[in-house]
Amino acid sequence: MLGYNLLGDGKRPDSDSWALLSDTHLAANRTLVVHGVNMTDYFMSVARELEAMAPKCAGVFVNGDCAYNTGEKSDYALMAALLEPIRQAGMPVHIALGNHDNRQRFWEALQEEKAARRPLKDRQVALVGTSRANWFVLDSLEQTAAAPGMLGGEQLDWLARSLDDNRECPALILIHHNPGKGEKNHGLKDTEALFEVIRPRKQVKAYIFGHTHVWKVERDPSGIHLINLPPVGFVFRDGEPSGWVHAALNPKGMRIELRCVDQAHKAHGQVVELDWRAS
Ligand SMILES: [Zn+2]
Fold first, then answer.
1. What is the count of structural domains for the chain?
2. What is the distance in A from the centroid of ligand 1 to the CA of 84?
3. Torsional sign, CA 21, 229, 48, 79
């Protein structure tokens, strides 16, 4: 890193460096405060940190629940405006949808997202290929403002085919909903079907999600890392961190670091070194 900084001018993005954001819950009413958090202010604080980094991240992921509650077009208009400085600073933004989003209104407000070429025309999915990893952005929005989510057979088939076509490079899966099970599953309804696809495909190294508004890193018995991103916006329980996660890829894994909006929070700067399971 030091050598790079000495050689580079800090303007070229670091191709191994990525920003992982989730649950921004941006409300058209920019003054709205929930659980002591103004979501617009928190998002702008994260955006300023991203813009000030040298070198900058190669890209930014927003892993769903972009909008405050019911995915209004005016929420997305604010989102588009707040994303603009990040994009102007040279960081492409890749957006997933959550249960507080509305796909049609999202596409109406962010026309370039609607126009983007997608592997599945009717879902907000993407495959972002880089030299060290393929990022799969999936769409688990089933019904706006109802908690659980679902990928569905068509999307899982596409995921399986795309993974089979991309065996050589580590695959990192971004889905808004957390793995869930049981009758009161407020997470991903087709978790088992997803794991049937990703467990045997050893190139899959991590499943990254939001939705619970809790920061946590665990590991599936198969060796897949389970990364629960904190919310950028409001927390459900006092004391939980809000912020974003910086991911730095290396040949054998990924180093992730929690960046709290409140930098005095005890979890701020927490680092987890993730090693990839064998392929
Ligand atoms: Zn949320």
1. 1
2. 22
3. positive
